[in-house]
Give the backbone structure.
Amino acid sequence: MTVINRRSWSSAALLSCIQLISIVSTSCFSWSPLNHRQHTQFATLKPSSPQPYYSNSGGYEWKLNVASGDIATTTREKLETLATIANDALTEHGSDIFKSFKARVAVMSQSADEGTQQDALRLGLVAAENIRKEDELVASLPFYDTDGSGLALAPHLATKLVYKDKLPEGYDGWTGDAGLLAMLLLNEMARLNVDGSKGIDLPTRKDGIPSLMSAWVTSLPSPEEMSNLHPLMWDEDDQEVLQSSSTKKIYRIMDDIEDDSSWLDENAWSLDRETFPETIKLQIGDSIEERQCFSTEGFRYAVSLVRSRSFFVDGSLRLLPYLDYANHDDFDSFELVGGGIGMLWGSAKGALLKSGKSLREGDEVCISYGPKGGADYLLDHGFVPPMCKASSTGGAVTSELTFEVDDTDRFRDDKLDILEYETYDLAPMEPSQVFDVTGGRPDPAMYQFLRLAKLGGKDAFLLESIFRKEVWGFMSVPVSEDNERAAVTAVIDACENALKEMDEIIDEEGSALSPKLQLCALVRGSERQALERTLEYVTQEAEALDLKEYYQERRLKDLGLDSDWSPEDDDVSFGGTRVPGGADYDW
């Protein structure tokens, strides 16, 4: 995989930031690092602002101070215009499309801690009526997976319908389902081009859905806003800090985006610029904005939107317009789930949004984005919730370690064969595996993989074909002291290397950190705690390897040969029932 020359676009990112400041009087909105929260990005930029703080309901939030006067008024007016457009579409078509939608889009302000004295504006969902009980259905959205005629977007619609004639059969990009959804999102944007519809005019939609889709697409944050709000759109320097702050590497994602966009540009977009223009113009409220579309920057922008707004429901990653306005709450909230939705002709599969508590009309409707580590939340949604905060009392702190079968391993081919065919049914394993560590005893599956990866020397007989069907099971328990030491040492080295990289970032930090760097510091603190706990546990384990039971001892025990033997034992016999000369054969 090629490596991005990140210097090539750092100046462009800087220019975008300068332009953003210079046009501060032109308001627009976006979701914030906390909970997709749409809020103003236009503010009075001061050396002491923006100020980060921990929100009671969401996470480690940062906001720019909202400027007073005409800018703040214009921002609220624009947000209200966009909310009105969305609600008008819901009023006219919502009952036919959603089947149930007991909420409305609203402009909401949230006061920060008293010390910061700043307000934020964002879009979200509020209850349109009293929700009387926990687990009550608030909204439902059918999938219409067969023909894509509904509002929901799923990855298979890209390969089997919209881009069917543009992509080779079996296309599987590095960005996976997120990349396919990004391609669908770019196509939806292109279809709304004010100078004439572009893109591919698929899927064919039911009546009312085009209005709902248009209102949703135009409410999405702009690339300039996302450059502040999502790590994939950050400038190069901030991304470099995040790269060293987490074992979940942002550059891997960036490389995948670069590779996929380059392939798509060479094999599809650049071949038909009439259908796939590099830029488009969208009607955003009362103004027209030009945005990147079928280009490397446009694809990166779309992937950042997809990662921040998509949900894994009913076995697939999906974009669920309008349901995605719901913000995250660590407590009293449920994840979106799949289920049956009552229709005139029976029932259909769809996504269900349920309330985690009783609500009064006008109360905000929140959901959970699921159990993830701090780095996952930041790389997906652009914020880190309190539940992922490192603390002495524990919490959802997590880090990840990557291991692989060495390219120079003389038994590599045998090991790859085992991983592909003899591990789990219908789920072959790659030679490189990633494992989560949360502190304490590591995942047994990690040790199982490492024992196979480090198998060699006197233990290599287990790779013989006679053991091929059983060897993966053998790896679930210690093989030999040398093999176990190699596996444990690999974990220790991985933890120490990750901590060393984080130490270098800490040494370079000054006393004042930008909001982005504070988010990096929060992730780094959480992962450091997980790594240090894991390192402490594994180091102690390395000192007690002689106390473990290994393959040789287990095999002898299975054969009944694990006890001491003495010729004087009265009950000694050969083979259990046979003794020399004891055969009674009549020759």
